[in-house]
Design goal:
Elements: H1 2-20, E1 29-35, E2 40-44, E3 49-51, E4 54-58, E5 62-67, E6 80-82, E7 88-90, H2 100-103, E8 104-112, E9 117-119, E10 123-128, E11 136-140, E12 142-143, E13 148-153, E14 162-169, E15 173-175, E16 185-187, E17 193-195, E18 206-213, E19 219-221, E20 225-226, E21 229-230, E22 236-243, E23 246-250, E24 255-264, E25 268-273, E26 280-281, E27 288-291, E28 294-297, E29 306-314, E30 317-328, E31 332-336, E32 339-342, E33 348-356, E34 359-360, E35 365-370, E36 373-374, E37 380-381, E38 384-387, E39 396-403, E40 409-418, E41 421-427, E42 432-434, E43 440-449, E44 453-458, E45 469-475, E46 481-487, E47 496-504, E48 507-517, E49 519-523, E50 529-532, E51 537-539, E52 543-546, E53 550-555, E54 558-559, E55 566-568, E56 574-576, H3 581-584, E57 586-593, E58 599-609, E59 613-614, E60 621-625, E61 630-638, E62 644-649, E63 652-653, E64 660-664, E65 669-674, E66 683-690, E67 695-712, E68 717-720, E69 725-727, E70 730-734, E71 738-744, E72 752-754, E73 761-763, E74 769-771, E75 780-787, E76 794-803, E77 807-808, ...
Parallel strand pairs: 2-10, 12-21, 23-30, 32-40, 42-48, 50-58, 60-67, 68-76, 78-85, 118-126, 142-143, 144-148
Antiparallel strand pairs: 1-4, 3-7, 5-8, 6-7, 8-9, 8-10, 11-13, 13-17, 14-15, 14-18, 16-17, 18-19, 18-20, 22-24, 24-28, 25-26, 25-29, 27-28, 29-30, 31-33, 33-34, 33-38, 35-36, 35-39, 37-38, 39-40, 41-43, 43-46, 44-47, 45-46, 47-48, 49-52, 51-56, 53-54, 53-57, 55-56, 57-58, 59-61, 61-65, 62-63, ...
Length: 2048
């Protein structure tokens, strides 16, 4: 069934095979457009439209239309048709039938045939529905003599379809577009009508516009319009009123550039081109016409495109406009090659060539298409398309489409053909062996180009033709040929070698394989074989059957081979090579036999035929001339008959019509005869001879030379000037003749020179000569010659005549003549004669001598044309104006403008003004005073410096002048002036009649210029390792060129090699003062190069000479690198390293420090084993180390500034050594014959113990009986010696061994064996260390079966006595869940009646450490320095600390610190901010609780307030604000908010905002103010710490700069706003302080009444009353001066009690001291009074006991916030405090149980951080300070006020008020009460607050609290009395002599705290002293050698004690207080020597 179905399929494919397998058709050609549709088609709905598209190709392409989306365009009845010729017709339609998808869409034309497919450009079709429209006329009027413009206004909906065809000058004069116009009227190609030289008569004329619809051809005419002439008087400078900004034309078209200006007088025009390097004037030429406001260019080229500038000028000035001309040049696109044949698998490459006028065009937008589909960009490289690995799919048509930006497209096509490819077998069959019967199918597949043909053979012969064989063949879609041979029922005779042969014209390929069929031998019929003589014959025996044993060949009864040419192949075939006719013809027989002997025979005949051989022609090419006779002979020299001889020409049989004859001489010779050669006989002639063996051919080329002859003969020609002409000249001949054009240099018979290709001269390929823009120089005789070497050639002379219309060399010229002289106006015109010349006035009135007696006209001929002359006699001003010389001939007309100017003496120029002012030049412009009747030849500009100090008489000699001429302009540039200088200018006009009077003077001030000189005296000095202070002096005044506004400071590393500087700007004050800048953040110990340049409002000046400076040394910032360690021995290590990187050494390395410590786990190290050693080398050997110990090693480098960064720890282990002796040994009797030995390992094992050696010695008296050594493992520490002799003494000792060797021996322990076994403990006691919560086993192993008892600290332990202990039967004690309380001594006691023994274990439990005690030492604006003391370490070494800190309302940061650290400085903090700091410690067990949280504030306050005189400097219309005078109070200013308003009657007047984010700068100017006006200025200054606001009043000066009137000044002073009440930030503390005053007074009264219960004597009452009045007076004074000092305000809620103990007062409270000012004797007190802040820290007694107990916890105190709008935190209420310096000191405590706290407050100190906003002190400088500054009180005896705004007062004290308790601090303010230096009063007074500010003051040292137990109470009282007397005397002396104060007179304070009990509401209160007691604070003379002296008495021992005179009567409270004082001696306050840090902080109070 399969065979039959396959059979039908093969039959169906036979026809396809026949067509597809034909040889490749060489004549196939892809489609190409003959007529491509245009890119845009527009038509009217009434006319319809059509799109033509035709293409050529082979076969003829079909043309189709598609839409933009690729869908086919179909016919729509009555709307759209597609004709057979490819034309798409869009029929006319009604307006209602408009369809957008038909009438406004994109079409594409597609041409396709079997080769490929191409697509046309996009065709945008637009159908326009005809609509009626109306046109109007717009008139742009002008002045008399100027140009008017008439514009035709077309509605926008038809504007692009309507063009102006003409204008009608009523009644019937038509004006058509032209490039030149007629001198009066000029219609531009764009439709505008220009009317030149307007006169009054033109107003009566009417004009109409004619327009035409270019689709409907409808003409619409506008209504008539008349002109209007503008009347102007005087001079009006020109202004361009109309110009064409952009003109776009195509190449070879005419272009008109329009530029119309209006002015009075009429402006003159100049044209310039900017197409070159600079502006060049446009000159009139053959193609360029300058027509005043019009520039006309004929036949534009690409070189004409560019920018043009027209300038219109008159005496009033000039105006200009720029115009752009764009020339669209056509481009040509070509693909190279256009036909490309590439073999399959090869690479095809197409290049798209884009040219314009023969020149390549730059990069274009190129798209590639393949068969109408766009290709991706992957295979494109710019303009080249590469197709790799060409296959059948790649053949077809390729298109290159170029799209220009204008939107038009161009394209070219190319064809890719597949080249010939020989066949290749893709599939073949294999050899098969079968039994007869089944069906067989053989298959072959081949590929090639052209498609190959497959044929089949069987044993070299055609297949048998019977019904069982079927051959089929078809072609796949890929072009492969598949052929089958099917045998339906195979038989024995079908066997043999089957072969398939694939063949095309490129080659042939064959495959053969056998088909074996089992059976007897069978030989098929052998057909007759014809062999060709001389070739190889391969005769195959067609044998079938299988298997075949042998095959033989016979001929004539002889078995072959019998000749050397014969050979029988192994497959049985016979090969004869070469075949010979006589020898090899005959009958051949082949026979075959199998192994069984069966055989078969068959014979066949072989015939040999000799192929023909031709005699060769004599030559390959036969050249003869036309008319000659020719014959070609074809002779056959060999070959068998019958022979056929034929002749062919160019591959085709001979055509009898070509007059050729063939003569057959015989069977072997033939002659071709041509009697008369013609040009058509040229060709390739072939003689073809054929017989049955072969066909041979012999060819010869015949070339007939034909002389040239004319195809198109040249003729004479005429051409108009500036037109194009084509001179045709074409000839033909063989070879093709060459055409040469020549032009006669003279007459017709003269010399000729060859015409070559050049601009406007084109030699076309067909021989024609194209002359473009023909001028007269092209006229003459031309010779066209044609020559091809045959004959003499031909030639023809023609004459070219140029018909020239008249033209002038220039469009206009000017003639100037003096008044009264004769004016001579000439014009020379060129052109064909006759030329008629007419002179006209103003372009309209013809001048005739017969009507005007003043004129005469002359005219004469010239070789090129005519020269005319017009004379005007006795000219005057009325004769000035335009004259036209108009020339005309038969070919056209032209005119020239001659401007006549009559000169008169000039008038002085007017309207003198500065057009441009620069720093060194001024551009002055002016205007002539009249219409310019005078002839001005030049202008003289005079100038001088406007120095009012010189008398006017000297001005004449000072004028400098410059001349303006050639030609004289109305402006002048005066250069080389001085910057920022006032000059006077004036202008004088000079003509032929002389000079005019000078113009009015113009005063001009030149602009400032960049400074010309650098800053002077530049110096740089280092301040630190990262800071340089740069200082300089301003440039010389004459080189500043303006106000110096600031300086740019540049710096760079000298070693960097970088030439660029880093610049920083410093604002200046404008007066050129000196400047300085602190450069920070620099590299350490680096040399910098510094330059400075000054800048003003213009820009920076030159750089100064560089100076170099080096920053100071610093410690290295990187550790040494590559630290390595190696053990040398058991006690030495060698450490090596490399230096730190050179850029991080920060100085000269002095050496290195090696820090090392052993890593041991001691319980409590007896000493700090951290050691350090210094060296200068890079290696060090550490000796004397612990044996076999791990060491932590760190290395640092140090410079002279200190130690650098330490390296990371490196751990290194010393080597092993022999161990020390075992720590102990015990020997006890365990039985009568055994001893138990135990020992302890060595304390210093010095390695890993490998074994123990137990030595035994038996001693009998003094005789040693036996000695024995026994080795025991290292894990065993006991041994029981058994089998001993009784009553013998045995001695034992032990040694330990490491891998190094055996160590020292233990002590020798001896024991005598005995029968009585006493109780003995064999375990060892000692310290036992365990971590908490673990389990410990305390061993107690004993002998003698004793009774055991355990004791803890001598208290017996029972089973279950401790909840966590357990007693084992073995005697061991187990304690689990260890706690700190479980530590102690545990003893085990054994007793058995014979003996007793006791063992003690010391258990130490390791727990986490307690919290460290943290206190702050100092603080700056960006750092906090803190120290700490460790608490209880928890029986384990501290391993490190963790520091926690966070800014208020910020996130918490933490930092890990070393275990050796006891202090740390936090850096990089925010200025004026509060930080919370606490610390925790860690050991191996855990982490401690954190310390008490400290609230520390960095230095810096919100901005202060400057003095108005320093801040403001008003002018007439401006205000200078000196921003640099605003104090920042330690925190840099961020920005200002500045606003002002005029002070008027309206209190709600709006503020004018100058800036709400004004960056800090030196100064700013507020402009636009009114003179003599009172203003109010409001300013806000912002920094990180807060905001400061102030308001100021100022009055601007008068217009003349004089002071304002007094009444305005009075208003300003009267209405000045108080700064405090304008600032809410200041108002709230003020109200709080006043309230506090009232509360203080009330509390004083309450306390006073309470104290009256135990009234002292009258004197004491008087003293109390006096002190109370003084306190009240001081409080009122403090209120007036607005100084505030408060203490912590404890919230009193629910009747809370008053704090009773000193713990209620913050141990971190802050006090404030005032530095002395004025005339102090110390040099460091010469500055103003500054405020110092101090903090004394109160610590519990635990601090004196070391690290043994944690510090107290913090209390939670509520505080009232001073500002609700800006809350900080609970602990810090305000960040507005004006704080300048703080310091914290640690105080030692008394040993008694009574705790005292002494807290000092200055006048501006507050534990709530609320300070007076009025304080204005700045941060203290660090230089020049005394080491006692921060301990000195200033006790003033002078009441001179020294307050802010000159209202300050000294010596005031503000009461610090609590809610229910009054703490009063009294401070003496006059000499009368100076003996009361400090008088603490009240029952709960815990602070002493004082502020002393005076030029005359005494000084008291406030010492640090130092314990002084040796001073008794009586001694103290006696010493106090003496101190009070001395203090009183010193105060009086200081009051009488203000200048006599000195440091020697100042006394340190001795303060003795005393207890005082008061009864308040039944509660006991504690006070500092008793009622009526004299103050226990006195001053003593200090000494420069005064130092802290703890534990020493400050007074002689022999001095008797004495008391104050007011203290005679005893008081119960005093007695109690004295008793306590005797038990607890007082405290001496010692001055500290540390530097004061300008920082402020607060901390919470400690609880009770």
């Amino acid at each position: 069934m399969w065979i039959s179905s396959r059979f039908y399929v093969i039959l169906l494919l036979l026809n396809l095979d026949a067509t597809c397998s034909e040889p490749f058709e060489a004549h196939l050609r892809g489609p190409g457009f003959v007529m491509e549709p245009p890119g845009r088609v527009e038509f009217s709905n009434s006319s319809g439209g059509w799109l033509d598209c035709s293409a050529s190709g082979s076969p003829q392409p079909t043309v189709d239309w598609v839409h933009a989306d690729g869908s086919a365009v179909t016919e729509i009845h009555g709307v759209r048709r597609v004709l057979r010729n490819g034309t798409l017709v869009l029929m006319p339609f009604a307006a209602a039938a408009y369809h957008q998808d038909v009438h406004n869409t994109i079409y594409r034309c597609i041409a396709s045939n079997s080769v490929g497919r191409i697509v046309s450009r996009d065709v945008q079709v637009r159908a326009v529905v005809a609509q009626a429209y109306k046109v109007d006329v717009e008139v742009l009027s002008a002045a008399r003599g100027c140009t008017a413009i008439l514009r035709c206004v077309v509605p926008t909906f038809v504007k692009e379809l309507v063009r102006v065809v003409s204008w009608v000058h009523e009644p019937a004069i038509y004006i058509y577009p032209s490039l030149q116009g007629d001198g009066k009227f000029h219609l531009l190609p764009t439709g505008e009508l220009l009317i030149h030289n307007l006169q009054e008569s033109d107003e009566s004329q009417s004009f109409r516009c004619r327009s035409m619809h270019r689709l409907t051809r409808q003409v619409v005419v506008s209504s008539p319009t008349r002109l209007r002439i503008n009347s102007h008087r005087g001079i009006i400078s020109p202004s361009v009123v109309e110009h064409t900004a952009h003109v776009q034309v195509s190449q070879d078209e005419g272009a008109v550039l329009l530029c119309v200006a209006q002015g009075c007088p009429s402006p003159e025009y100049s044209w310039f081109t900017h197409n070159g390097a600079g502006p060049l004037p446009v000159l009139s030429g053959p193609r360029v016409r300058l027509l005043g406001p019009i520039l006309a260019i004929e036949a534009v080229t690409g070189e004409d495109s560019g920018v043009y500038k027209c300038t219109a000028g008159n005496v009033g000035g000039e105006a200009s406009a720029e115009l752009r001309l764009t020339v669209a040049t056509p481009i040509q696109v070509e693909i190279s090659p256009n036909v490309l044949s590439v073999h399959m698998g090869g690479t095809a490459e197409f290049r798209c060539l884009v040219t314009s006028n023969g020149s390549p065009v730059g990069m274009q937008n190129i798209l590639w298409y393949k068969d109408g589909r766009q290709l991706p960009s992957s295979g494109r490289v710019e303009d080249t398309l590469v197709v790799p690995r060409v296959s059948r799919e790649n053949r077809g048509m390729y298109q290159c489409v170029v799209r220009r930006p204008e939107g038009d497209t161009f394209q070219a096509t190319a064809e890719l053909q597949l080249g010939d490819a020989p066949p290749v077998l893709l599939y073949s069959f294999i050899e098969q062996t079968l039994q007869p019967g089944p069906a067989v199918s053989l298959k072959c597949s081949a590929a090639g180009n052209p498609t190959p043909q497959i044929s089949w053979t069987l044993d070299g012969f055609p297949l048998p033709s019977n019904g069982r064989f079927m051959i089929g063949q078809y072609i796949t879609v890929h072009g492969d040929v598949i052929s089958h041979v099917n045998i339906s029922h195979v038989m024995v005779e079908d066997g043999g070698e089957y072969a398939c042969n694939a063949e095309n014209r490129a080659g042939r390929v064959q495959h053969a394989a056998r088909l074996n069929i089992y059976g007897l031998p069978y030989i098929r019929l052998i057909p007759k074989v014809t062999a060709v003589s001389g070739e190889t014959l391969n005769l195959k025996c067609p044998v079938a059957g299988y298997p075949i044993e042998e095959i033989h060949w016979e001929r004539g009864g002889r078995e072959l081979p019998d000749d050397i040419r014969q050979r029988v192949q192994p497959d049985g075939s016979l090969t004869i090579s070469p075949v010979q006719k006589n020898s090899d013809s005959g009958v051949y027989t082949c026979w075959a036999r199998n192994k069984q002997g069966h055989s078969a025979r068959r014979s066949g005949e072989v015939t040999v035929i000799v192929p023909p051989k031709l005699s060769p022609f004599q030559t390959n090419i036969l050249q003869l001339n036309m008319g000659d006779r020719a014959s070609l002979t074809c002779s056959v020299v060999k070959g068998d008959l019958p022979l056929t001889i034929n002749w062919r020409k160019d591959g085709r049989p001979i055509d009898p019509t070509q007059h050729m004859s063939v003569k057959q001489v015989d069977q072997y010779n033939s002659i071709l005869v041509i009697e008369n050669l013609g040009s058509d006989h040229t060709g390739n002639y072939s003689c073809v001879v054929r017989n049955s063996a072969a066909e041979v051919e012999n060819s010869q080329a015949l070339l007939v030379n034909v002389p040239p002859r004319w195809i198109v003969e040249p003729v004479d020609a005429n051409v108009e000037r500036n037109r194009h002409i084509m001179l045709h000249c074409q000839a033909q001949g063989v070879p093709t003749p060459s055409i040469v054009w020549k032009k006669a240099t003279g007459s017709k018979s003269g010399e000729y020179e060859e015409v070559r290709e050049r601009p406007f001269t084109k030699l076309l390929g067909n021989g024609s000569l194209l002359l473009q823009h023909v001028k007269e120089d092209r006229e003459g005789f031309y010779l066209c010659q044609a020559n091809n070497g045959i004959g003499t050639g031909i030639g023809k002379v023609i004459q070219l005549k140029v018909n020239s219309s008249p033209y002038f060399s220039s469009t206009s010229r000017s003639v100037m003549v003096k008044k009264g002289d004769t004016a001579l106006l000439q014009c020379a015109v060129s052109g064909d004669k006759p030329i008629n010349i007419v002179w006209m006035r103003s372009g309209k009135n013809t001048l005739n001598p017969s009507t005007n007696y003043k004129i005469s006209v002359k005219q004469e001929a010239t070789p090129d044309g005519v020269s005319a002359e017009l004379q005007i006699r006795t000219v005057d001003a009325t004769d000035s104006g335009p004259y036209f010389c108009r020339a005309s001939n038969l070919y056209g007309n032209d005119q020239q403008l001659v401007q006549l100017q009559v000169q008169e003496p000039p008038l002085p120029p007017s309207v003198l003004e500065a057009a441009m002012i620069s720093s060194r030049s001024v551009n002055i412009k002016w205007q002539p005073k009249t219409l310019g009747t005078g002839d001005v030849t030049k202008y003289i500009v005079e100038f001088r410096e406007a120095d009012h100090s010189l008398p006017p008489a000297l001005f004449v000699d000072q004028w400098q002048q410059i001349e303006v001429k050639d030609p004289p302009h109305f402006n002048a540039m005066i250069e080389n002036l001085k910057p920022a200088t006032r000059y006077a200018f004036r202008v004088i006009a000079e003509g032929s009649a002389g000079r005019s009077a000078p113009s009015q003077e113009l005063i001009v001030r030149t602009e400032p210029q960049r400074p010309a000189g650098p800053p002077l005296s530049l110096s740089a000095r280092p301040l630190s390792s990262t800071e340089l202070l740069i200082s300089w002096v301003a440039p010389l005044p004459e080189l500043r060129h303006g106000d110096i506004q600031g300086y740019n400071v540049g710096y760079k590393l000298s070693s960097s090699g970088n030439t660029a500087y880093n610049f920083t700007s410093v604002s200046g004050d404008g007066d050129g003062g000196n400047g300085e800048l602190l450069l920070s953040g620099l590299a350490k110990f680096a040399r910098y190069t510094v330059v400075v340049q000054a800048f003003n409002q213009v820009g920076p000046g030159p750089l100064s000479e560089p100076t170099a400076a080096q920053t100071m040394e610093d410690v290295p910032s990187r550790p040494p690198e590559d630290v390595r360690c190696a053990a040398l021995s058991s006690q030495s290590l060698q450490v090596s390293w490399q230096p730190p990187p050179i850029y991080h050494t920060n100085g000269l390395l002095q050496g290195y420090k090696l820090i090392f410590e052993p890593i041991i786990d001691d319980i409590q190290p007896s000493k700090d084993e951290v050691e350090s050693r210094k060296t200068t080398a890079l290696t060090m050997v550490l000796t004397g180390l612990r044996k076999y110990t791990n060491y932590s090693i760190q290395v640092l480098a140090h410079t002279r500034m200190g130690d650098g960064v330490v390296s990371k720890p490196l751990f290194c282990h010393s080597e092993e050594d022999v161990p020390e002796a075992p720590a102990d040994i015990k020997v006890v009797s365990s039985s009568s014959q055994s001893l138990y030995i135990s020992w302890l390992p060595p304390n210093e094992p010095n390695g890993v113990i490998t074994k123990y050696s137990l030595y035994t010695r038996v001693v009998n008296g003094r005789e040693e009986l036996n000695n024995e050594k026994r080795s025991l493992p290292s894990q065993q520490a006991y041994y029981e010696a058994k089998g001993l002799h009784p009553h013998m003494e045995y001695q034992f000792w032990v040694t330990a061994s490491t891998r190094v060797g055996e160590g020292k021996s233990s002590r020798v322990s001896s024991q005598i064996t005995t029968n009585r076994i006493p109780a003995r403990i064999i375990s060892f006691g000692g310290p036992v260390v365990r971590p908490w919560r673990s389990t410990v086993t305390l061993p107690c192993t004993a002998v003698g079966k004793p009774k055991r008892e355990w004791f803890k600290s001598d208290v017996a332990l029972r089973q279950g006595g401790l909840h966590n202990s357990q007693l084992l039967d073995s005697g061991d004690l187990i304690i689990s869940s260890l706690q700190l309380a479980d530590g102690g001594n545990y003893s085990c006691q054994v007793d058995n009646g014979i003996g007793t023994d006791r063992l003690t274990h010391t258990l130490m439990v390791q727990v986490p450490p307690t919290a460290p005690v943290l206190y702050v030492t100092s603080a700056t604006s960006s750092s906090i320095l803190m120290h700490w003391k460790c608490g209880f370490t928890g029986n384990a070494p501290i391993t490190g600390y963790t520091l926690f800190y966070r800014r208020a309302n910020g996130n918490t940061d933490e930092m890990q610190l070393s275990r050796h650290a006891s202090s740390h400085e936090l850096k990089g903090l925010m200025c004026g901010s509060t930080y919370q700091i606490h610390l925790s410690a860690q050991n191996k067990v855990g982490t401690s609780p954190t310390s008490t949280i400290l609230h520390v504030r960095t230095q810096g306050q919100s901005p202060g307030h400057p003095a108005s005189t320093a801040l403001l400097a008003p002018n007439s219309t401006s205000l200078l604000v000196r921003l640099h005078s605003w104090p920042d109070n330690g925190c840099p200013l961020l920005y200002f908010v500045l606003q002002y308003r005029a002070v008027t009657e309206d209190p709600d007047a709006e503020w004018v905002l100058v800036s709400n984010a004004l960056k800090p700068q030196r100064r700013i100017v507020v402009n636009n103010l009114q003179p003599s006006t009172l203003y109010q200025l409001r300013m806000e200054a912002h920094n990180v710490a807060g905001i400061s606001q102030a308001e100021f009043n100022f009055v601007t000066l008068t217009k003349d700069g004089d002071p304002p009137p007094p009444e305005i000044m009075h208003r300003g002073h009267g209405g000045q706003t108080n700064v405090i009440f304008a600032n809410i930030n200041l108002l709230i503390p003020t109200i709080a302080a006043v309230s506090g005053m009232f509360c203080t007074i009330i509390m004083i009264i309450v306390c006073y009444r309470h104290m009256l219960k135990n009234a002292p004597p009258l004197a004491e009452q008087s003293q109390i009353q006096k002190e109370s009045l003084e306190n009240r007076a001081n409080s009122e004074a403090a209120q007036r001066e607005r100084y505030y000092a408060t203490i912590h305000k404890v919230s009193m809620q629910n009747n809370d009690k008053i704090p009773e103990t000193s713990e209620d007062i913050s141990p971190y409270a802050t006090f404030q001291l005032s530095e002395a000012g004025g005339n102090m004797s110390q040099p460091h007190h010469g500055g103003p009074a500054n405020t110092l802040l101090h903090s004394f820290m109160y610590h519990e007694r635990a601090l004196a006991e070391g690290c043994s107990s944690p510090p107290p916890a913090a209390s939670k105190n509520r505080r009232r916030h001073s500002r609700k709008t800006e809350p900080e935190s609970e602990e810090s209420e305000s960040d507005q405090d004006q704080l300048t310096s703080s310091r914290t000191e640690s105080s030692n405590q008394h040993e008694g149980k009574i705790k005292h706290s002494i807290i000092y407050h200055g006048a501006q100190s507050s534990t709530s951080s609320d300070l007076s906003p009025m304080s204005e002190q700045k941060s203290l400088p660090r230089r020049g300070r005394s080491r006692y500054h921060h301990q000195q009180y200033q006790f003033s005896t002078n009441t001179t006020p020294r307050h802010h705004n000159s209202n300050k007062m000294n010596n005031n004290t503000t009461s610090n008020t609590n809610t229910t308790a009054t703490n009063t601090t009294a401070t003496p303010s006059t000499s009368s009460n100076s003996n009361k230096i400090l008088s603490p009063r009240g029952g709960n007074l815990k602070s002493i607050s004082s502020t002393f500010k005076s030029q005359d003051s005494i000084q008291c040292h406030i010492p640090t609290l130092v314990k002084s137990p040796s001073i008794s109470t009586q001694q103290q009282k006696q010493f106090h009395k003496q101190q009070l007397q001395n203090s009183s005397n010193n105060s009086q002396h200081s009051s009488s002599n203000p200048n006599s104060s000195s440091l020697k007179q100042q006394q340190p304070l001795l303060i003795t705290p005393k207890l005082h009990q008061l009864e308040a509401n039944g509660q006991e209160l504690l006070g500092l002293d008793g009622i009526g007691n004299s103050p226990l604070v006195a001053c003593m003379p200090p000494s420069s050698q005064f130092r802290p002296i703890p534990h020493k008495s400050i007074m002689p021992a022999h001095e008797p004690p004495h008391h104050h005179n007011h203290n005679q009567q005893s008081h119960p409270h005093q007695q109690q207080q004295q008793q306590l004082q005797q038990q607890h001696p007082g405290t001496l306050l010692n001055p500290s020597t540390a530097m004061l840090s300008s920082k402020f902080f607060t901390a919470p109070t400690l609880p009770k």
